[in-house]
Specification:
single chain, mainly alpha, globular, coiled coil, signal, LTXXQ motif family protein
């Protein structure tokens, strides 16, 4: 298990750096991204194999649902950029609140489900760890652009 703690960060760096190695082609490799995310989160939460087996299907479903809802919010924001009458503006505000409530409900349900698989402290850390992964990928992407003079 100690070897796993050393191997996962190395695996993460190798996979995530290769995600952006093909950046010149403007090709995003979703599979490499997902592999890096799994390695990063598994390592940072210190998930045991039996936890990971139950954790990832729950997390992936939650993430998929959340991303869909965030796209819906984005769509509402795009609709609000044009000229709107009061009626349409009120309708969009109402839709936005419904989606935001759905996101909150989704997170509550997910936290209850995931707390049956991982400890409460691991469940609490998850949000920060997910953001750390996105920041790490973003920083790696920025450094890659700087090296090419972009």
């Amino acid at each position: 298990m100690k070897n796993l703690k050393f191997i996962l960060p190395i695996l993460f760096v190798l996979i995530s750096s290769s995600i952006f190695a093909q950046r010149n082609e403007q090709k995003f490799d979703r599979e490499k991204y997902e592999s890096a995310r799994v390695a990063f989160i598994t390592n940072r939460l210190d998930l045991k194999p039996e936890q990971a087996e139950k954790f990832w299907p729950l997390f992936n479903k939650y993430n998929e649902d959340r991303e869909r809802m965030m796209r819906e919010l984005s769509n509402i924001n795009k609709q609000s950029e044009g000229d709107l009458n009061e009626s349409k503006a009120k309708e969009l505000i109402s839709e936005r609140f419904k989606i935001q409530q759905s996101i909150l409900d989704l997170e509550k349900d997910f936290t209850q489900d995931i707390s049956k698989v991982v400890s409460s402290s691991q469940a609490l850390k998850l949000g920060g760890v997910s953001r750390d992964f996105v920041r790490q990928i973003y920083r790696m992407n920025q450094r890659g652009g700087d090296r090419r003079g972009n």
